[in-house]
Specification:
Elements lengths: L4 H5 L3 H24 L7 H22 L5
Helix pairs in contact: 2-3
Length: 70
């Protein structure tokens, strides 16, 4: 679920918050799977982490600008 920042900016805040929760759950599961499989670190960890960062960036921009785009 790697998304470009322009795709993320096109969505409203409630959808982004829901996706953020889903991605954090997935990140949690990947951490446990990674600890069980010692060498099985995939690129999915990085994709989830960067997508979370992009969503947080967009939500922060909207908060600072006062634009709720709902």
């Amino acid at each position: 679920m790697k998304k470009a920042i322009t795709d993320i900016r096109g969505e409203d805040s409630t959808e982004l918050k829901a996706k953020l929760n889903d991605l954090r759950k997935e990140q949690w599961q990947l951490r446990f799977r990674g600890s069980a499989d010692a060498g099985a670190k995939t690129t999915r960890h990085r994709e989830v982490r960067t997508t979370i960062a992009r969503i947080l960036t967009v939500l922060g921009e909207r908060t600072r600008a006062g634009d709720k785009k709902q």
